[in-house]
């Protein structure tokens, strides 16, 4: 029997992104530190040494170094869409509650715009919406 390949249903491009994330949980004092693997306007991929839990609501504090060498921070909220153990770590996919925006994550979006322009990466929307960056 022929097996179907998984279909990529994402509407946004993912971009390689170097940074760290502190994952916190509403009404809990627990914080998990993770490394950012990639980011899109609608979510991010993370590497963590502890599991987070599929379906958990989270706040992510995102830290990165901007083009001028300054450490910058922005935050977003979302939900753990998937989680997979890989050796001694966990690969985690976060879906943001809202797309990244200039009003909510101004420095992060500015940095992402700079990366897209500098490295000539594709515009964020796979469905060919009007480019906003």
Folded structure, characterized:
It is globular and about 35 Å long. 21% of the residues are buried. The protein has one helix at 106-118; strands at residues 15-16, 20-24, 31-39, 43-48, 57-65, 71-86, 89-96. The termini are far apart. The protein has a single domain, classed as Beta Barrel (Thrombin, subunit H). It has a 6-stranded antiparallel β-barrel. It is 10% helix and 41% strand. It is mostly beta strands. The model has no long low-confidence stretch (mean pLDDT 89). It is built from 1 helix and 7 strands.
Keywords:
133 residues; mainly beta; Thrombin, subunit H; six-stranded antiparallel beta barrel; 1 helix; 7 strands; 41% strand
Topology (SSEs and partners):
Elements: E1 15-16, E2 20-24, E3 31-39, E4 43-48, E5 57-65, E6 71-86, E7 89-96, H1 106-118
Antiparallel strand pairs: 1-3, 2-3, 2-5, 3-4, 4-7, 5-6, 6-7
CATH structural fold name = Thrombin, subunit H
Order of neighbouring strands in the sheet with most strands: 2-3-4-7-6-5
| Integer count of domains | 1
Distance between the termini: 45 Å
User: Percentage of helical residues?
Assistant: under 10%
**Biggest sheet statistics:** 6 strands, antiparallel, barrel
- Fourth-tier CATH superfamily name: predicted glycosyltransferase like domains
With helices defined by DSSP (H or I, 4 residues minimum), what is the helix count? 1
Structural class: mainly beta
CATH class: Mainly Beta
Mean pLDDT: 89
What is the radius of gyration computed over CA atoms, rounded to a whole number of angstroms?
15 Å
| SSE order | EEEEEEEH
């Amino acid at each position: 029997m022929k097996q179907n390949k998984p279909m990529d249903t994402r509407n946004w491009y993912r971009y390689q992104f170097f940074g760290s994330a502190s994952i916190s949980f509403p009404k809990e004092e627990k914080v998990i530190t993770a490394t950012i693997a990639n980011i899109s306007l609608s979510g991010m991929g993370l590497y963590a040494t502890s599991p987070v839990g599929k379906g958990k609501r989270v706040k992510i504090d995102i830290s990165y170094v901007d083009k001028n060498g300054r450490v910058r921070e922005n935050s977003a909220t979302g939900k753990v869409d998937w989680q997979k153990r890989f050796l001694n770590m966990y690969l985690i996919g976060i879906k943001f509650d809202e797309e990244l925006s200039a009003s909510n994550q101004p420095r992060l979006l500015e940095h992402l715009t700079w990366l897209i322009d500098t490295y000539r990466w594709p515009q964020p929307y796979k469905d060919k919406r009007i480019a906003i960056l």
